[in-house]
Specification:
single chain; about 650 residues; alpha+beta; Heat Shock Protein 90; Ribosomal Protein S5, domain 2; Rossmann fold; 3 domains; nine-stranded mixed β-sheet; five-stranded mixed β-sheet; 28 strands; disordered N terminus
Length: about 650
């Protein structure tokens, strides 16, 4: 029991009065708790700074005043973003009695986004974006071209260094923001070119007619040119759909592309059926990727199901079907992009990326229904192809349900309900337990010997698991290795209402660790497993449950001394340290290709011991791009996959 008297004495000595109430002025609150505003202070937060500045320029484009945005990554990982918009106002703000530029850059919730006459819709953090960036940078310089003059103001850690000054004349308009992320706040400082380029490409598709350029001054080619890309789209979401589905075989001669306004809400949709078995619907609100969906997604799904079902019933194509069709069947093999512009979006959900505006559901529903009915009537051949695809999906779902029921019956009849190959741990608290999915029985045996039996479980995987990217759902549930993963983890998938719904209530391990050999086959197996998790257990990735083990690549010996190396740079450094002349002379070098080449003690020390191992957590930075890459890597089209491998081979620590 608690010692109430002891607590009472402690409370008597602790004074709590007005002096304990701390008021953080200006942008101090942002610097004190940066993660509340930008998510975190690692790589994601660092890149979020750039996205917030870009979003301000995009808002100018949405308002019709900007058609070009340029992003520069400088050699020292500082950033410049400029546009040809109207330029942030620099005249005196009547209430604040200082330049409007300074107000925008130093006051939270200040900006033109709250004046409906300035911006009808906007993305970003709703008025806190650019001021947050200012707060989290050691230096920021705003240069404004406006009213025939060039205005400039410098800030340090969110505070103005000098008043707004005029530094020249100009016949242009626009805003330029230069900033240096604050080293005392961010854990990392290196910008990822591909991550930023992917976002600019996405914005170009979502905002047709706007050119977005990126230049990386850290990287030069043989001719001395900086690495750069330029993104521009004439047809918006239709071009986006082509990009996403470039490695999938289309079932239609052309995509369905509709654009317009319903109940004062601009709606743009592009959709295409393909021969795959995955549903890939991506939704955006004011250029924000709402990967948790929301009312706009619900409206689209409702309209799609109702409209297609009505057409299919009227056509008589469902007459011989002996079981019901549900919403999932209408979305199998569908790639769709939904983009809406909402004046005052209300976001909810764990990551604030789920739209909650109830009026949007009805608007999207009506908009899609009207246009889709018309399209189906005008294109009967395409309509018949779509309905046949739906019937095939329903048939496969029915077979998959039987396969799932068979698996469940086997689990009930068996004594433990767990796979025979699983070496389980003694701990029953999922938060304290982890499971290794290990390539092959040999490595699995070594892992079983080397593990800590209290909290580490081992499930060996036999060979390469089924490629779920190219398999129908019932085939997936008939696969022994995939059934073993489902039952070992304690999760289930599929209900009568939603055949792809994932139930994680009985998840048995908080960490699910993929451990494969450091060779081509090992990388292939890891990718197959990741594809399975992305397509059928994405929630586990989003919840942070999936990890990849990192076994060492080299063991270097000199006498009795042993040193493990995880990459080529470490190998060179250790060779330099252990040898007199900097060569491999007098040293014993072993290149690990298989986990089984290590004994159980070595595997524990290097790869499984929480105190010394390196785990890489699997996250989804951009769900739309992840969808495209999995389709490209695991689909039928060879040329795009070959091009990707050739471009990225230098990043892989593998050889044949």
């Amino acid at each position: 029991m608690r010692d109430l008297n002891k607590n009472s004495l402690a409370n008597e000595n602790q004074i709590y009065d007005a002096n304990n109430i701390q008021v953080l002025e200006g942008l101090e609150a942002v610097r004190k708790r940066p993660s509340m505003y930008i998510g975190d202070v690692s790589s994601r937060g660092l890149h979020h700074l750039v996205n917030e500045v870009i979003d301000n320029s995009i808002d100018e484009a949405l308002a019709g005043y900007c058609d070009q945005i340029n992003l520069f990554i400088h050699e020292d990982n500082t950033i410049t973003v400029n546009d040809n918009g109207r330029g942030i106002p620099t005249d005196i703000h009547e209430k604040e009695n200082r330049s409007a530029l300074e107000v925008v850059m130093t006051v939270l919730h200040a900006g033109g986004k709250f004046d409906k006459g300035s911006y009808k819709v906007s993305g970003g953090l709703h008025g806190v974006g650019v001021s947050c960036v200012n707060a989290l940078t050691s230096k920021l310089v705003a240069t404004i071209h406006r009213d025939g003059k060039i205005f400039r103001q410098e800030y340090q850690k969110g505070k103005p260094v000098n008043p707004v000054e005029v530094i020249g004349d100009t016949d242009k308009t626009g805003t330029e923001i230069y900033f240096e992320p604050d080293d005392s706040i961010f854990l990392v400082r290196e910008y990822n070119y591909d991550l930023l380029a992917t976002r600019l490409r996405e914005l170009a598709f979502l905002n047709k007619g706007i050119r977005l350029n990126i230049t990386d001054e850290r990287i030069k080619d043989e001719e001395g040119n900086y690495q750069s890309d330029s993104f521009y789209s004439e047809e918006g979401l239709k071009d986006f759909l082509k990009y996403l589905d470039e490695t999938r075989e289309a079932l239609m001669p052309d995509s369905i592309s509709i654009e317009g306004e319903k109940n004062s809400i601009p709606v743009e949709i592009a959709m295409q059926y393909n021969t795959s078995f995955a549903e890939n619907i991506h939704s955006y609100v004011n250029n924000i990727n709402t990967h948790e969906g929301g009312t706009h997604m619900a409206g689209f799904r409702r309209a799609l199901t109702r409209t297609l079902k009505t057409y299919a019933e009227k056509s008589g194509m469902l007459a011989k079907l002996k079981f019901d069709i549900n919403g999932d069947d209408f979305r199998e093999g569908l790639t769709a992009i939904i983009s809406v512009k909402v004046m005052e979006p209300q976001f909810e959900g764990q990551t604030k990326t789920k739209l909650g505006n109830s009026e949007v559901m009805g608007a999207v529903d009506q908009f899609v229904s009207e246009h889709l009915f018309y399209y189906l009537d005008e294109n009967p051949k395409v309509a018949k192809t779509i309905v046949n695809k739906v019937i095939l999906a329903a048939t496969a779902r029915h077979a998959a349900r039987k396969a799932r029921e068979l698996v469940q019956r086997k689990n009930v009849l068996s004594s433990s309900g767990l796979p025979g190959k699983l070496a389980d741990c003694s701990e029953r608290d999922p938060d304290k337990s982890e499971i290794y999915l290990v390539e092959g029985d040999s490595a699995g045996g070594t892992a079983k010997q080397g593990r800590d039996r209290k909290f580490q479980a081992i499930l060996p995987l036999k060979g390469k698991i089924l490629n779920v990217e190219k398999a129908m759902q019932h085939k997936i549930f008939e696969s022994d290795e995939i059934k073993n993963i489902f039952t070992a983890l304690g999760v289930s998938v599929g209900t009568e209402e939603d055949s792809k719904a994932l139930n994680t209530d009985k998840l048995r391990y908080s960490k699910i660790i993929i451990m494969t050999d450091a060779d081509v086959d090992g990388s292939h197996i890891a990718t197959l497993v990741l594809t399975f998790f992305f397509r059928y257990m994405r929630e586990l990735i989003e919840n942070g449950n999936i990890y990849i083990a990192t076994p060492p690549l080299y063991l270097i010996r000199k006498g009795k001394e042993e040193r493990f190396c995880w990459n080529e740079d470490e190998r060179k450094q250790v060779v330099q340290e252990l040898s007199k002349d900097g060569t491999e002379k007098g040293l014993s070098l072993q290149r690990y290709k298989g986990l089984g080449e290590m004994n159980s003690e070595q595997l524990w020390h290097t790869t499984m011991n929480p105190g010394s191992r390196i785990l890489r957590q699997v996250t989804i930075e951009n769900g739309t791009e992840a969808d495209r890459i999995f389709s490209m890597l695991m689909g039928d089209e060879v040329p795009p996959r070959r091009e990707f491998i050739e471009k990225n081979a230098r990043y892989a620590n593998i050889d044949a």
